[in-house]
Design a protein that fits this description.
Aminopeptidase, five-stranded mixed beta sheet, 5 helices, globular, binds coenzyme A, Diverse_Substrate_AcTransf, acyltransferase, Acyl_CoA_acyltransferase, transferase, GNAT_dom
Length: 161
């Protein structure tokens, strides 16, 4: 089997689905890894609150996991939310977090997670999706330039928050 064929087989094993109640432990492992990548440690109540919100149908904050169907392992996550905007009648989606565990990278998992978010955005009737990344995160941008376009905006924050 060629390298390309075996990569495709590996990619076919990956399924992205909405987070479910039984996922908390598997999700939390990825969440902790993601915080390590972001060089931040969040208090446990942040994770607990976000996870509960993913499951709450009245809250427009969602979580998705990429699952390797051969091992059952969760290997990636995406978190996204919907909000009003003065620029459109419909709401827009903000992709808050995206993470693929190290050994599963450059196999199309990140792309699958973003495609899942796009599909959900279309289903919700809010197809506009945006996100931010660090200007030095070249690896992520290799993916982002294939699924979106780079804007000229610069992000500012209120000092201290
Ligand atoms: C960014 C991240 C989510 C990408 O996930 P991934 O599963 O590796 O991405 P994919 O394999 O789907 O990459 C998609 C495309 O980018 C290209 N690409 C990604 N990394 C690449 C690399 N290092 N070299 C060359 N091409 C690369 C792939 O060729 C692929 O293109 P294709 O789909 O046309 O073949 C992952 O690297 C990650 O979790 N990084 C740490 C956390 C992070 O940076 N999160 C984003 C914060 S904004």
């Amino acid at each position: 089997m060629s390298e390309k064929e075996s990569e495709k087989m590996a990619n076919d094993r990956i399924v992205v689905r909405a987070i479910e109640a039984g996922d908390e432990e598997a999700w939390n492992k990825l969440w902790v890894q993601y915080q390590g990548f972001q060089k931040i440690v969040m208090p446990p109540e942040v994770g607990k609150t976000s996870f509960a919100r993913f499951l709450d149908p009245t809250v427009k904050l969602w979580g998705a996991l990429a699952i390797d169907t051969e091992t059952g392992d969760a290997i990636g996550l995406a978190h996204y939310l919907s909000h009003l905007t003065s620029w459109h009648v419909e709401e827009v989606l903000y992709l808050n977090d995206l993470y693929v565990t190290e050994h599963a990278r450059i196999k199309g998992v990140g792309r699958k997670l973003i495609e899942f978010v796009y599909k959900h955005a279309d289903e919700l009737g809010t197809p506009a999706v945006y996100w931010v990344t660090d200007h030095y995160n070249h690896r992520a941008q290799l993916l982002y330039t294939k699924v979106g376009y780079k804007t000229d905006k610069v992000v500012y924050k209120r000092t201290g928050y």
